[in-house]
Write a structure and sequence with these properties.
single chain, alpha/beta, 2 domains, eight-stranded mixed beta sheet, globular, binds NADP nicotinamide-adenine-dinucleotide phosphate
């Protein structure tokens, strides 16, 4: 079996690490990619093809994990070239998933939930072809939710609206505490109710959010497009905060 990656960032690199089997080969392309991605691809040692079109033609499963904004253009460009299953792992709305299904035949709606560089994230799947990816459970905890495209994207959006809004609030409170020389005490008093690991988890969440604020903003945009902006007061505020 051949698994092809479109996008070889944190998500794909972790999948590559977890799905190790003598029966599975990986392919991708360096076509128009950044130095950072090219370096990661070369380091992986997987087969590098000249173009993503070739990746699609050759693979039994194409995994697209790029960015929410590029999900539709990529599906439009390559969807027709995919012979096998196309697993989209981008943080996109159910509407975006349905639009992608217009360009891609065997689409599976997917999400990686959990810390992305950990050994135990969970792969959630939905869609008519989702069952065909259940074998991945051998390498990564895999849970098929339903045969309906859009179910996983909806869950992903709901989770994202909670965690990303909370991260923006955390950054705001942490900055206020730091400016007043009370960072340690801030974490100490919150740990009393939130648990001993609160400081460590919060600092990791803050770092992660600040390092990928552009992508996180795109994801918040997707949430607003998904649920409509009339009731999303907190999410809109989080987007404002991350845009600064
Ligand atoms: N990180 C997480 O915790 C997490 C969890 C679940 C889902 N997701 C979703 O999964 C997707 C990937 O996340 P990530 O953290 O892996 O992102 P990332 O580390 O920023 O990596 C993105 C990868 O996609 C490539 N890429 C971007 N546009 C492309 C295009 N048009 N054609 C081919 N490759 C392209 C990038 O290459 P260049 O370097 O050349 O731009 C890079 O290799 C996102 O949609 C994200 O929302 C992320």
């Amino acid at each position: 079996m051949i698994i092809g990656f479109i996008g070889f960032g944190k998500v794909s690199q972790n999948l590559f690490k977890l799905i190790q089997s003598e029966d599975i080969e990986f392919v991708t392309s360096c076509e128009s990619r950044s130095a950072k991605t090219i370096e990661a691809i070369k380091k992986s040692g997987m087969e590098i093809l000249d173009a993503f079109e070739e990746v699609c033609l050759k693979s039994d499963i194409v995994i697209c994990a790029t960015s929410p904004k590029s999900a539709i253009p990529i599906a439009r460009k390559y969807g027709g070239k995919v012979n096998g299953i196309y697993l989209d792992l981008n943080n996109i709305s159910p509407d975006t998933t349905m639009e992608i299904s217009e360009y891609v035949g065997n689409l599976v709606d997917g999400a990686i939930i959990g810390k992305i560089d950990s050994d135990n994230p969970i792969l959630y799947l939905s869609g008519m072809k989702a069952d065909e990816l259940e074998f991945l459970n051998e390498y990564i905890h895999t849970r098929v939710i339903s045969n309906k495209l859009g179910d996983v994207s909806t869950l992903k959006m709901l989770r994202s609206s909670y965690t990303k809004t909370l991260s923006a609030l955390l950054i705001e409170s942490w900055q206020l505490a730091k400016d007043r020389g009370l960072e340690d005490e801030f974490f100490e008093i919150l740990a009393l109710t939130e648990g001993d690991e609160f400081r460590e988890k919060s600092l990791s969440r803050i770092k992660n959010t600040l390092n990928s604020s552009k992508r996180k903003s795109e994801e918040l945009d997707e949430i607003i497009n998904c649920f409509g902006d009339s009731e999303l007061i907190m999410v809109k505020a989080a987007l404002d905060k991350l845009s600064q």
